[in-house]
Records
---
Amino acid sequence: MDKFLSNLQVEGDGRLVPATEDELMEVESLLIDDRCGMHIDAEPGQTVGCISNEGSSSWMAQLESLEGLSQPKSKKVDPDKLNGRLEEPVPSLAPSLRESNLNQSGSVGELVAGGSPLSVTTKPDFSILKGEICLDNLSIKELHETFKATFGRETTVKDKQWLKRRISMGLTNSCAVSTNFIIKDNKFAKKGNEEGCNGMYGSFAKDPSIVNQKGLPTCLVGQLDYHKVVPERRLENHNIDDYSGSDDHENEQRAAKRVRKPTKRYIEEFSEVESKESSGRLLNLAKNSGHGLMSPKSHVRLVRNVSSGGRTVVTRLDSLGGSGIQVPCVSRVRRSRPRKNFMALLKFNPSGMGMAATLVKKALDDHSFPPDDGNEDRVLKASSTPEHVHHLFVGMPEKGKQFSVMSAAGLGNNMEMKMNSSGDSDDNVVTVPTSKGGVRRKHHRAWTLSEVMKLVEGVSRYGAGRWSEIKRLVFASYSYRTSVDLKDKWRNLLKASFTQTPPDTGVSSFSYFLLTCSSHPPENHDY
DNA sequence: TTTAGGG
DNA sequence: CCCTAAA
């Protein structure tokens, strides 16, 4: 648990993208199945998504990203290496292997802890991700290597078809599969093609779903990439994520403990993590085996360089509603002004099989981003095509809303419009004098779907706890809705996410929650 | 002032 | 949502 916890706690600041009203919300989410999500946390090695919208941030963070996020204090990432790593294609599915190894060793945390991305030389190359992997072209020997990398064990089988099949399956199952690849006819291919960003992102956005050989329902994996705030030094190079594990997690955690006793939220998260762990069973192959099968693909995560404040904020990832979404959380040690630039990672993992998951991503241009600091370095490593935007609609649980996922490339703006129209409008704050002499806002101002989405986005971007930031940047146009309101709402959302999941479902509670709410089209918000 | 939490 | 303790 500690490991998990620590992993979860990895701080990362992520930020979605532009939050201001004018700006678009950009949300990228990847769908991840539960286990993946979990794994991700646990297993830093793999990275799945990468996002970038032009410079704008994108989120496709992955669990792995966490790693990247977490920065080892001690270690510094060597950009070159990273780059090299990223770019180098690795024939063998090293990642998988590595992960499996890690798992075996039981050192997931270790990986993470290893922290420095660099430190992990063994880390798999994610480069593979870039290209498509075509098992057909591999020789038996290569297939054997791949097999080994994938499953962590050798095989003597000479049957190419079998090997390909097995590998494909392994890959598919592995959470890694996440969005980018599709396996078809024994061919493991990236779905999208062109995306710019290392290719990962784009494909991601386009079609998160993965098809596996079996024709089983695809499991969705979604992740938001969050940008984590990284110490500048680290970032200095590129904002590449490092895959490093984060040893910091533990430290941070410890630090937090020192500072204050665990808060309720902390506890909740912790428990959540555990539940997650247990929940990810269905699809999760790797997990069970103990060899994580990581998705061969890792994604490069874009790291936003935040130099603005100069101050680095550490955040940890919170999971929203158990395994559904993870968002960066402000480090417990606070007191310093929250930094504006982070990217949050938000991830959804509907793990249900056959569920079509989609994340929403809103592509933003950098400009759209709030002028927050100006310092923000938005150069993300790669950019995916902005066009691919997936919108995610999330309903409010309480309301019994639904969340639907819509993936529409290039449709991004619809959402926005809808959202704006619905929620943003009235500013008039209705207050009611209280008997006590105070004025209190007239009761409920129902939270609209758009508001909720913005909130989620804001949290993913800036981190839970940075309410004032979110308020300023994301809810600037909503005069009502104070930072406290945001906080309360978030609390409710979390609560709801936990609550609504029926027991025994393989699906994570949060995912379930989202799913269950998805019956209505976005159009039907209850405004 | 802002955040976390309880009410 | 409100109120308050902490920081």
---
Amino acid sequence: MNRRVRVRFAPSPTGALHIGGVRTALYNYLFARHHGGDFILRIEDTDSQRFVPGAEAYIMEGLKWCGIKIDEGIEEGGPHAPYRQSERKEIYLKYAQDLVASGNAYYAFDSAESLDALRKEYEQRGETFAYNFSVRTKLQTSLNLSADEVKSRIERGDVWVIRFMMPENRNVEMDDIIRGHITINSSTLDDKVLYKSADQLPTYHLANIVDDHLMEISHVIRGEEWLPSLPLHYLLYEAFGWKDSQPQFAHLPLLLKPQGQGKLSKRDGDKFGFPVFPLLWKAPTGETAMGYREEGYYPEAFINMLALLGWNPGTEQEIFSMDELIDAFSLEKVSKSGARFSHDKAKWFNAQYLRRQNDSDLALQIIPILKEQLGIDVSVERAEKVAALLKERATFPKDLVELSRYMFIAPAEYDEKSVNKFWKPENVEKLKELRDLLSSQKDITTATETMVHEWVQQKEYSMGQLMNTLRISILGISQGPSIFAIAEFIGKEETLRRIDTAIAKL
RNA sequence: GCUCGAUUCGUCUAACGGUUAGGACGAGAGAUUCUCAUUCUCUAAAUAGGAGUUCGAUUCUCCUAUCGAGUACCA
């Protein structure tokens, strides 16, 4: 069947979107774009209890920051609006009732308490309670009660749910693009709730099938945690008579916690020392968790890193632009096993992207940080020089600010280790000579280095000893790029002043 | 417990049933350098275990082990 590719990312607004969710969205997006199809954002807010204010806006902002563009969604609109399930609530009841009418579902009047009690009872007997063929005709269901009784209970406002009537002992045959063929016997499954009268809302299972059908979704790409629900979903398509237009499924491997075990969860916040969220998250409770954006990651680097976590094109290419990802992506190349996220690798990707920035862009990025961190105003030209000089040594733009600190501010202290190593009387004597030599120059530039080099050789001094002594006097530490480049940057006067200060102080 | 899924260097991964099992991050060593970082070179590092099928299994089948997911009137 050749139909338009339409995929959806369907998060529930119960908190910030963690990187696992971002990756699911990304793979959906890449798949859609690769096939020239549509990427739809649908908000699955059918759990009135767990709704978190701000989560929905966060999800949209997060996707936007990542460069994932939505074709149809709650802000973008589209032919199947609304895209928020809470605003579609009227449509689901009819479908649930259709299933009752066709004999695929039934009403159940059990209270949550009585079910809890049943579960406990079974547990005490060492059994597991399952709401399925074995009990549904014994409990308070429309299969057991007379039609009149059911009708009057509903009319008098008793609380009810509609449950799917899971067939007994049927092998459900399923296909997953990533995992291949899967078979499961329906007797191991239970009668899932499809619709609840209490809040007049469907559960995920009903809503997602109905909406995917109505929205003409061609491929469902979602996390592996949904795999156990797949037979139910297959059976629902069948019960509705929608087999012909049923989407294809692909279940993505999970993202694992960096240490310990289990899948990454939004509750993991930033307790591992790195963000699990794309953006800073401020929960209504006041809790906050850091985000990749705020940490200084480039969205392109973040996406590049995430794309390769569970997918690989089979080549040795590591750096991919979004367009290259779109071009190379295929679900068949998604791996089956869960992936553990590596912070080191994320940083490496960011460093790669930082180097690829051109100096003027980088300058613009660091000027505000320079202002904020060091309280100094720097011209674009000066900032460009800093960028050019230091970008190979940085992971984040903010690193450039820290690395360039002593290019703007004279050191107030001198690193003890470096001083112990190089600040020796004989070196200081030579430094004084060098100071006089420098002061005799018109100005100090990187070209001065050659001259100094020759002078050092002539005098038979040690370049390493002298240069580091000079470096300490200027920067306070034996680190950083070419000392002559730095001297050129701060200028002759400042260079001499710092040498004098160091000689006086140390 | 039950059901389903997964298992290649520490981590992310590659390998029509035939390769000295490749790459990347990280680690270690060396080279370069005025220092640090970069860069470059090199090194260590893996097919969970056991049976099959096959001329030949990382690759296919089964068993075991381990890990994970699901098992809600949550998604």
